[in-house]
Write a structure and sequence with these properties.
Helices cover 31% and strands 36% of the residues. The chain has 3 helices and 6 strands; from the N terminus they run E-E-E-H-E-E-H-H-E. The longest helix has 23 residues. It has a 3-stranded antiparallel beta sheet with strand order 1-2-3, with no helix packed on it. The protein has a 3-stranded mixed beta sheet with strand order 4-5-6, covered by helices on one side.
């Protein structure tokens, strides 16, 4: 896996490009003199955990023949403050609607956390990562 990061302004705005040419923007905080016009790196880290977990949960539910009508996530994280300011806790909250059995959703989240999510397993094990969900079941 290769990602190239290039500075694209006179401050902290950067563009990352992956092997297939997909791009994303990053920026620093205003306290550094950045414009905050893109995701900051720690926001991307939290987003990466959410994205990885989402892919795993959707995949497991789909293979289990569960119908997902809508899928959303709310991610939050607590940091220590100071320098450096690592995450001390993260919460990954799933919001789903569909013809989904609750026990299938619980199992899918458990598999993301304990078996499949590479981002989860790449993070410092001292980070308290909690998963939760809201499910609206429809026929």
């Amino acid at each position: 896996m290769i990602v190239i990061v290039k500075r694209i302004d006179d401050a902290f705005k950067m563009e990352a490009t992956n092997e297939t040419g997909e791009t994303l923007l990053m920026d620093g905080s205003k306290s550094l003199g950045a414009s905050e016009s893109a995701f900051r790196p720690m926001q991307m880290l939290l987003t990466s955990l959410g994205g990885c977990s989402a892919i795993d949960v959707i995949n497991v539910l789909s293979r289990g023949r569960q119908r997902i009508d809508s899928f959303e996530m709310r991610l939050s994280g607590d940091r220590t403050g100071g320098t450096p300011s690592p995450f001390t806790a993260m919460n990954v909250h799933f919001i789903l609607k569909g013809k989904i059995k609750e026990e299938k959703l619980v199992k899918a989240i458990e598999l993301a956390e304990t078996k499949y999510c590479s981002v989860y397993f790449s993070l410092n094990p001292e980070i308290d990562i909690q998963y939760s969900y809201d499910l609206e079941t429809v026929e």
